[in-house]
Design a protein that fits this description.
Length: about 260
Amino acid sequence: MKKIYGRPKYLKPRKFHYCAGCGHSLVHKMLMELVDELDIADRVIGVAPAGCAVLAYDYMDIDIVESAHGRGPAVATGIKRSVPNLVVINYQGDGDLAAIGTAESIHAASRGEQIMTVFINNGIYGMTGGQMAPTTLEGMRATTAPKGRDPRREGYPLDLSSLLAQIPGVVYAERVSVSTPRGIRQTKKALEAGLRCQLDGEPGLALIEVLSMCPTNWKMSPLDSCKWMDEVMSKKFQVKVLVDRRTKAIKKAASGNVD
Ligand code: SF4
């Protein structure tokens, strides 16, 4: 596989609207590097969410469809089932995937849809100004939990990826973080693994959860956001492979032909 250096060919030469220190731009860049490296530009299609990444089509020079809030998995399902040869990337944030779209997320997983969901988890509603999300940590402040999330009042943080990983229709699920250079490298590997599930015809959904900084709504500097991610957030949402049911990868590993 060729390696891309500098600006990826399919990342448009535009200034991101994302705040300084936000993780979205890193994930966009890695996805576009992979589109080039895996040579899938003519068959990849994205599904963009409501949320801070609503303008993903302004940056990624690939076909992208906009979905209604939380409905990305349903839109991605329709695309993949209509044209099975397409490589479908469903991009969602935590409010989108784990609150408003919980039903779609669970049922796409239970149907084993052959799509990749990229789940950006920053523990808060970003675009709308910092309201509590399902993933907001205990004690973490949000505009709708100004004293910090109290489970007796606001319930416990929801680890939806771990729930989804229990469903047999999920063929691969990994949680990664973009708070360090090492985490960024691992994120790219995880995204590649997710895309390869479709290229290899793995019978199920790939889910890559990316812990991503939101300095603006966390009210921290970009550097402090990275530290908080490592020291606090990743203790609750642990970075690891949540499930690996890939048949071909297992076969390749067994025969020693892993590339
Ligand atoms: S509000 Fe948060 S998630 Fe949204 S662009 Fe700014 S830093 Fe990123």
